[in-house]
Specification:
Length: 380
């Protein structure tokens, strides 16, 4: 029977322990496993290669993303770094220019030294992607919505172009999660996540995921996962499983709050611009509805006066001034000096990641309380 996404996030891959019947799947906190005899195995030998708790959360992500297999890592960056091992020196990737600063740092300061090259383009303009294809282009790496300017890239068109040129499409689906967007169903090859964010949902663990749509790529990722060794620990795997059970109700509440907050910010006389795809005047509003079932809970906004930024960050009381996103608590971040500090100033300026931009990860609190906190911070 085909269950809805709302049901599948709760039950995952039938996440109960078949041995004991435990509804909450156990944390197999072990490094190694006893062999029944010479040449025999229970299916588990060493936790870096296999662990029952990690295996369950991996199967759950594969189910939710409609992938053939999924692989869990110790962080989102570990997941992306492992995907890059699919490529060889001399290979070229076309990448969204508006993306998480840590990803930019990995590409520019680590992967370039290993012989990969990158073209950073505004992937919300399809022609930018197409004209950046080179004879050695092996993949598109796309964030949509982008971080932090919330640009929307046309997944249908980008995936079609990739197939025409025999190029892999890698989509960072952290912001929308499989609850709102499933790129593999649109034909993408690989999906990556920072599971630390909405999948876990409680700001209490680091995690990353790679989900693939074919067995050959899955076998290679599995080999790399075991060989490099940045696997997700059993306790963290369990925390992600627990967080996934409430993914649908959290995201629905967070999106509801985000829409009302974005509308309030749009009306505020001290706000210059609001970046949220759920607003009808957002350039990607119509496009996102063709490839996703929701808009998510991430908002960026620029204030008219840069001196407001310090006042807001020092004055918020309910909202926490902190990096990261996707938890049940609302967080506000200053991308220029935090999440995107690794991005060169000239690129930040071109993107609009400047001294007046703030990013808000909307939580599940009562929305009027969040708005009241922003109001008092603006007026402090």
């Amino acid at each position: 029977m085909a269950y809805s996404i709302e049901t599948r996030v709760v039950h995952g891959n039938r996440n109960y322990d078949s041995y004991t019947g435990a509804i909450s799947f156990p944390i197999y906190q072990t490094a190694t496993f006893r062999h029944p005899g010479p040449g025999e195995s229970s299916g588990y030998d060493y936790s870096r290669s296999e662990n029952p708790t990690r295996e369950v959360v991996e199967k759950t992500l594969a189910n939710l993303e409609s992938g053939t297999s999924a692989y869990a890592f110790s962080s989102g960056m570990a997941a992306i770094a492992t995907v890059l091992e699919l490529f060889a020196p001399g290979d070229h990737l076309v990448v969204s220019d508006d993306l998480y600063g840590g990803t930019y740092r990995l590409f520019q300061e680590v992967s370039r030294r290993h012989g990969l090259s990158f073209s950073f383009v505004d992937s919300s303009v399809l022609n930018n992607v197409l004209t950046s294809i080179q004879t050695n282009t092996r993949a598109f790496f796309i964030e949509t919505p982008s971080n932090p300017m919330m640009k929307i890239s046309d997944l249908h068109a980008i995936i079609a172009a990739a197939r025409n040129h025999r190029i892999k499409t890698i989509i960072d689906n952290t912001f929308l999660t499989p609850y709102y967007q499933r790129p593999l169903e649109l034909g993408a090859d690989i999906v990556v996540h920072s599971g630390t964010k909405f999948l876990g949902g409680h700001n209490d663990t680091l995690a990353g995921f790679v989900v693939v749509n074919d067995e050959k790529t899955g076998e290679r990722i599995k080999f790399l996962q075991m060989s490099i060794g940045a696997t997700l620990a059993p306790l963290d795997s369990w925390l992600i499983m627990r967080g996934l059970k409430t993914l649908s109700v959290r995201l629905e509440r967070q999106q509801h709050n985000a829409r009302l907050i974005a509308e309030w910010l749009q009306r505020h006389q001290q706000v210059e611009k609001v970046y949220y795809a759920g607003l009808p005047d957002h350039p990607g509003h119509n496009l996102i509805q063709k490839q996703s079932s929701g808009f998510g809970a991430m908002i960026s906004f620029s204030v008219k006066d840069a001196t407001l930024v310090e006042r807001i960050l020092k004055s918020v009381q309910l909202i926490a001034f902190a990096e990261s996103l996707g938890g049940v608590e609302s967080l506000i971040t200053y991308p220029m000096t935090q999440t995107h500090a690794a991005v060169p100033k000239e690129i930040r300026d071109r993107l609009g990641v400047n001294e007046r931009l703030l990013r808000l990860s909307v939580g599940i609190e009562e929305v009027e309380d969040i708005i009241a906190d922003l109001e008092q911070a603006f007026n402090k």
